[in-house]
Amino acid sequence: MYYIRSDCSFDSAHFLKGYSGKCSNIHGHRWRVAAELAGSELSRQEQTEGMLMDFGDLKKLLKEMCDALDHCLIYERGSLREKTLEALREEEFRLVEVPFRPTAENFAHYFYTEIAKKGFPVHRVEVYETPNNCAAYEE
Predict the structure, then answer these.
(1) 15, 75 Cβ separation under 8 angstroms
(2) Structurally, how many domains does the chain consist of?
(3) Are the beta carbons of 8 and 40 closer than 8 angstroms?
């Protein structure tokens, strides 16, 4: 089996509604996403011969996904009052609503699923919310 891996990062804030601890407050992370692809055969096409796939294609997709989450407040749908959202929008803060609790585990699943939807042979995705704490998802 052949594997390639690429990393990308983004900075954003989040909070965990219903959590009893520090993470219930808005706080930020430098999230690092590592996507690993796998395959048993290498390409025979002239441009990518001897490669599982072009690193540039993986890096481009990962960067687009990370850029979409960079420098914003990521919040779970239904976790903020409409009045709060209105005030944040009025201040022109960048908000990104997700349909899941914004944990490292859920982000690992999210990135895995989105990469797979694009046709990439994704094997594993790791999401670091700190340099020492990582969650991973693979099927």
Answers:
(1) yes
(2) 1
(3) no
